[in-house]
Specification:
The structure is a homodimer.
Chain A: E1 4-9, H1 14-25, E2 30-37, E3 45-48, E4 51-54, E5 56-57, E6 68-71, H2 75-87, E7 91-94, H3 110-113, E8 123-125, H4 129-145, E9 147-156, H5 163-177, H6 216-228, E10 235-242, E11 249-257, H7 264-272, E12 277-279, H8 291-294, E13 300-307, E14 314-321, H9 325-341
Parallel strand pairs in A: 1-2, 1-6, 2-5, 6-7, 7-8, 9-10, 12-13
Antiparallel strand pairs in A: 3-4, 9-11, 11-14, 13-14
Helix pairs in contact in A: 1-9, 4-6, 4-9
């Protein structure tokens, strides 16, 4: 074959536009691309490697002759259209939460659980952005020392809530600096009842709240991590906070290893060689990960590795990654690259 | 007596101006105020209850006839001038880190360890801002259930680094929104070698780094908490992050209680009645603490109380407080109020 016919569902969104960019840079053989979106966005013209591509309205027959469909247009769209794509022979990589916890659907971060791809039945789920960067940072340490418990606090960029949230942060910040009124309409959660100021104001809510007081984002970090690491006994707990940052999530991660024998130097040397990780850990020279440095990069940046001085086998790390790239678009395209490399880019009979 | 002669050292700073405001609102009987600062700021005119007060240059004899001196002009100034004030009969409440860990110097948050005031020898230290709000939130729970371990992540406002840092956040944010260059000169730490962008960019450095990789701010949270709670066995570990917020620190606090029997409802009902605490914990109605709501208030706002679903007696809370008020100026004035109420406003022989 000359290459794959690739469809991007939600091509005009914050993640969709990054999916295009990641495909342009990808080693994946591509015969054609098709940009799909809602009726509202149909007719817009976007580029692919300097060629014009007209955005088409998403309908079931959009997937005729498509080999690979990357979805990032909300859970509802995935639930409705992913089965249509698979039925027509397209392998789906879904960046929404629609199918992530469904049994039999691989939830994949290639650096962690690539082998789960062998079990796919036409659909692979891309994990939540805040989960991905954390497991990329922890997996290399887990391989050597085992992992018992994780306590994470996230400081998440508004771009996780889409382009309208980026715009709101921008407009609201400008208004406040000018002493003008601004009425928030998107953040913290566009579909929830109340909207609050994000400019200069962290918001301890990402997604809606569960009955036990956890936000759904926190729930995702807990349960997706267990699934990706295939370890239901791994203890994970989380607090997710939206902060006035446009792109790249920052996370403080406290973790307890199962085995003894680790120290800071050993953890650093493991992470220095780990796939998808860039170690930035030299506090005396003020080297630690920063959102502005991570933006536009595919890696997860890790630093501030320290021992918990009062609990055995327990440490801190700080990780930062571009939530739209490794947290979404790049991880999806990376999954597609691995499907190709492993000869798995087909819907099984 | 008619009241105290009160001196404010560092009266023109971010904390100093709030000390003035807190004194204006205080029940403390005040006969006179004196505003002291460096030579550079001498001659400026500030108000006290609508009266003009000319800022004077700080010299040892500034403290003649002063009964109470509130210091917030940096550790070096405190080290040099606090002994001069005490020698002249003034009780010193010091908001710098100069004497906090010194044996025999009470480190006081009135809601937690007011009784330590009885031991003062003329000087009482005011704890670090990020520590104060955490111990205000935890102490009521500790009283009932004991406290074994704390893991905290802070998201701290730039005003902790003074008025110049607030200005830098403002100017830098404006420049970035306008697509202009901006060269940071203050944050993360004015005295450290490199300065980084804080606008839209969390910085995992507050104060300089220790040899074990902890920042000095993290070190303060660990050791000050143990001293305030008089419990060297209490495990505390911390990650401190500066975020693009002007005023009010936000903290995610995971904690393990010593005794069993606690649940979310019980912790909430304890905190609802706790001194200095306002419970804002109703996730279903999107009620949780926010920096913009805490700014200008004296309380510590607590919410997001949840069980760690996988570890016994372990919970999360989220606390937010105005770092310039309860974290600094108000706690200092509150200490003075308590010294007065307990008849301790004098330097012991």
């Amino acid at each position: 074959m000359d290459g794959y016919n690739v469809a991007i569902v939600g091509a005009t969104g914050a993640v969709g536009t990054r999916m295009i960019q990641m495909l342009e840079e990808s080693v994946l053989p591509i015969a054609s691309v098709k940009y799909l979106a809602s009726k509202r966005s149909a007719g817009k013209v976007l580029k692919f490697k300097n060629e014009d591509v007209v955005v088409e309205e998403l309908v079931p027959d959009s997937f005729n002759d498509v080999n690979l469909a990357l979805f990032s247009a909300g859970g509802g769209v995935s639930k409705k259209f992913a089965p249509e794509a698979i039925k027509r022979g397209a392998v789906v990589v879904d960046n929404t939460s629609a199918f992530r916890m469904e049994e039999g659907v691989p939830l994949v971060v290639p650096e962690v659980n690539e082998k789960a791809l062998y079990e796919h039945k036409g659909l692979i789920a891309n994990p939540n952005c805040s989960t991905i960067q954390m497991v990329v940072a922890l997996e290399p340490l887990r391989k050597v020392y085992g992992l018992k418990k994780v306590i994470v606090t996230t400081m998440q960029a508004v771009s996780g809530a889409g382009n309208r949230a980026i715009q709101e942060l921008h407009d609201e910040t400008k208004a406040i600096l000018n002493g003008e009124e601004y009425k928030p309409q998107i953040l913290p959660v566009s579909g929830d009842k109340k909207h609050y100021q994000i400019a200069f104001n962290p918001l301890a809510q990402i997604d809606v709240f569960e009955d036990d007081g956890y936000s759904h984002e926190e729930w995702k970090m807990i349960h997706e991590t267990k699934k990706i690491m295939s370890d239901q006994d791994l203890q994970v707990t989380a607090t997710c906070v939206r902060v006035p940052v446009a792109v790249a999530h920052s996370e403080t991660v406290w973790f307890e290893l199962e085995k003894s024998g680790a120290d800071v130097a050993k953890l650093q040397s493991i992470l220095k060689e780990a796939p998808g990780v860039v170690l930035e850990d030299d506090p005396k020279n003020q080297i630690y990960p920063q959102a502005v440095n991570a933006e536009g990069k595919k890696d997860t940046f890790v630093g501030r590795i320290r021992a918990d001085n009062e609990q055995a086998n327990s440490f801190h790390l700080y990780c930062v990654s571009d939530n739209l790239l490794k947290g979404a678009a790049w991880n999806s395209v990376q999954i597609a690259e691995r499907l190709h490399a492993l000869n798995l880019m087909r819907v099984p009979d």
